Amino acid sequence: MAIVLDGKALSKQIEGELASRVKIIIERTGKVPALATILVGDDPSSEIYVNMKGNACKRVGLTSKKIALPKETTTAELLEVIDGLNSDPEIFGILLQHPVPGQINERECFDRIALHKDVDGVTALGFGRMALGEKVFRCATPGGIMKMLEHYRIDIAGKNAVVVGRSPILGKPMAMMLLNANATVTICHSKTDNLPEFINKADLVVGAVGKPEFIKADWIKEGAILIDAGYHKGGIGDIELEKAKEKCAAYTPVPGGVGPMTIATLISQTVESAEKIMFG
Questions:
Q1: Does residue 33 have a pLDDT over 90?
Q2: What is the residue-averaged pLDDT of the chain?
Q3: Looking at the annotation, which residues are catalytic?
Q4: pTM score, whole prediction
Q5: Domain ranges of the chain
Q6: Is-same-fold flag (29-115; 140-259)?
């Protein structure tokens, strides 16, 4: 019977530990650390995600500073907001909700976030340092996946891992983290020729392509570990999980798998940032 990698339960456990750490910070400093969230435009899904992150802050005792900007915001205006948060001593983490409106240079804005406040792990410098195996805040979603694999004691060293997706904040950092953990990694995507052949050889499959049930159950080999980082209308992910459950060794449910771990990692790294800045 397949192991369910329950991100919802694990995230609750992590939040309990974080609440204790935040309490110590407040007792020792008299200050409540804050995470700043920036939402540009009025995308309903993005607003839901930002609110979920704000609620997670409340649960562990952090303050959440929500900054809502109009959809007409320019790159220069957004950079000015980020600069202000970088210099604000009350802010210990900055989250720029992805995606931003098309007229904004998202990469330039991500890279403007100070590295020590980049708790969502989106800067190019942070990615480079992570890829080289240096200590740095990791991209929240792949970082959460790695925490989940570690928690469930899934040893990936020497395993064949296939990451389906190549986004700069999910697929690419996921591949580097798996490589740093001694997996043998192949990066595929929606235009990969003979994709089923790659997946059929994988001991671990990460669905991060952003297409509902794009990865078919009959492509997956017996005993594989399935990490589904997708979420689509109807509560389905990037993998045909319902059909694949009977043949895999472990899987992340959708919802309740990767999503809660993304938020838990973001909040965890915010607490770590506060501890580093306040306690050295």
A1: yes
A2: 97
A3: 53, 97, 120
A4: 0.96
A5: 29-115, 140-259
A6: yes
